Automatic annotation (TrEMBL):
<comment type="similarity">
    <text>Belongs to the derlin family.</text>
</comment>
<keyword id="KW-0812">Transmembrane</keyword>
<feature type="transmembrane region" description="Helical">
    <location>
        <begin position="115"/>
        <end position="137"/>
    </location>
</feature>
<dbReference type="InterPro" id="IPR007599">
    <property type="entry name" value="DER1"/>
</dbReference>
<dbReference type="GO" id="GO:0051603">
    <property type="term" value="P:proteolysis involved in protein catabolic process"/>
</dbReference>
<keyword id="KW-1133">Transmembrane helix</keyword>
<protein>
    <recommendedName>
        <fullName>Derlin</fullName>
    </recommendedName>
</protein>
<feature type="transmembrane region" description="Helical">
    <location>
        <begin position="28"/>
        <end position="50"/>
    </location>
</feature>
<feature type="transmembrane region" description="Helical">
    <location>
        <begin position="143"/>
        <end position="161"/>
    </location>
</feature>
<dbReference type="GO" id="GO:0033554">
    <property type="term" value="P:cellular response to stress"/>
</dbReference>
<feature type="transmembrane region" description="Helical">
    <location>
        <begin position="70"/>
        <end position="103"/>
    </location>
</feature>
<dbReference type="Pfam" id="PF04511">
    <property type="entry name" value="DER1"/>
</dbReference>
<dbReference type="InterPro" id="IPR035952">
    <property type="entry name" value="Rhomboid-like_sf"/>
</dbReference>
<keyword id="KW-0256">Endoplasmic reticulum</keyword>
<comment type="function">
    <text>May be involved in the degradation of misfolded endoplasmic reticulum (ER) luminal proteins.</text>
</comment>
<keyword id="KW-0472">Membrane</keyword>
<dbReference type="GO" id="GO:0005789">
    <property type="term" value="C:endoplasmic reticulum membrane"/>
</dbReference>
Length: 188
């Protein structure tokens, strides 16, 4: 819609002052929907968002657990939104994409990949390869690093912490529990 001038990006971007003082609450959500104007970078982000969202949702981690997948997105979006005012980031769609890629890469650590058929690597390095490519295209690293950091926080709390808590006999073994309301809304 922005590429066709139906909607201006200025009505979508994250602005703490406009959200709090002017009541423009839609900006909390719409900043995740803008990936820039139509360009090579836009195409790459759309491809990776669709591909890795699908692979995460259909993979072993979230198969038949749509509520948990939605909760992961909500958790990540909340952390990114809390971070945005401190780092002057106005659009978080790219960060959300990098979060998905990071979590997928960590959960599929033995998958072999190559970038443009030239550079072979394993899946955990995919976010870093994409970050390098994004910076080479002239984008700031801050936006993508937010996604990688939030993805790491989610990965740690969802997959690493429960194992540590189980080994040490801690009472709270799982910190990220999907609320029953979210599960119900997602048909679980």
């Amino acid at each position: 819609a922005c590429a066709l001038d139906v909607i201006s990006p200025f009505s979508l971007y994250f602005n703490f002052g406009l959200i709090v003082y002017k009541g423009q609450f839609w900006r909390i959500i719409t900043n995740f929907l803008f990936f820039g104007l139509f360009s090579l970078d836009f195409l790459f982000h759309m491809y990776f968002l669709v591909r890795y969202c699908r692979l995460l949702e259909e993979g072993t981690d979230f198969r038949s657990r749509t509520g948990d997948f939605v909760w992961m997105i909500c958790f990540g979006a909340t952390l990114m939104t809390m971070t945005a005012p401190f780092v002057s980031v106005h659009f978080l769609g790219s960060s959300l994409t990098f979060m998905m890629v990071y979590v997928w890469g960590r959960r599929n650590e033995h998958v072999r990949m190559s970038f443009l058929g030239l550079f072979p690597f394993t899946a955990p390095y995919l976010p870093w390869v994409l970050l390098t490519f994004s910076v080479l295209l002239g984008n700031p690293a801050t936006i993508d690093l937010i996604g990688i950091c939030v993805g790491h926080i989610y990965y740690f709390l969802e997959y690493v912490y429960p194992q540590i808590a189980d080994l040490r006999g801690w009472r709270w073994r799982k910190l990220l529990v999907t609320p029953a309301v979210v599960r119900h809304l997602c048909g679980q």
